[in-house]
Amino acid sequence: MPKKSTSKVTYENNPFFVASNGITLLFNSARGMAVLLLVLSLINFFTNPRSSDDKPDKLWNDVVHTVTPWTVGDWALALGSGLVIGLAFIMVSSLIAGAAAHTSYKLSRGEEVKLSNAFRVAFDNLWGFIWLQLIIFVKIVLWSLLLIVPGIVMAFRYSLAGTAFFDERKNFRGNDAVKESLRLTKGAWFTTFASNMLLNLLSFGVISNVVSTGVNAVLYRQFGDLGDKKKPDAHWLSWLTLVLPFILLIFFIVLVISIVVGIAIGFSFSK
Fold first, then answer.
1. pLDDT tier, 69 (very low <50, low <70, confident <90, very high otherwise)
2. Which residues are within 8 A (CB) of 245 and not within 5 positions of it... i.e. 6 or more apart?
3. Tell me: the pLDDT tens digits for 141-162?
4. Could you tell me the residue ranges of all domains in the chain?
């Protein structure tokens, strides 16, 4: 029987503390999952392809030059291999995401989570979770067709759907899990957004998987406790998080200009 925390918790709308409390909870009660997510986040960060000097038209010409002499058999082999690799990628990524979502739910209940048990539950519900991921993906794409901003807003409104999917008390599946996420985050989009983004902005996304899993655990618990009651107003840090990327951009531009001016002045004095 998993251990259960009996400590009383209160609603937290400070996005920094939502994220930090979630990370602490994750490492204290699901250390195996925390270490795995940290390793995966680091691998993703350091292997993420950086900007390339190759121009799009050159890349396209290279592709055309490569596939032009292909026979029907070559195309069939390439498409078949692509489908197999794509399906394998979807299954593995969904398995990991499902294990993380299951961990978030258990942590929201104050329970400790073993890594092996999280993956067992995720594997048992793999196809249902893949279907949920597909629904969310299609919805976000459709919202993004209107404007990019609605797509971003709804992506965070849907962020608790995976956690709700593993709530055995409610047995949500597919679109029902999405609707539950919309209900929980109603009136708290800013808090949801900032809690996920603040530490990611400060850490340049190095610990993104760790942050989201911990944040979802905290938010699912406190939004669930409030039910349909009005959520507290967003913390001022949530507003700061919204403009933080622009502040960092301005700071970077000022820094670059200062360095250039400093070099120019130093060069003029050296003459």
1. confident
2. 201
3. 999 888 788 888 999 999 999 9
4. 26-48+58-234, 237-271
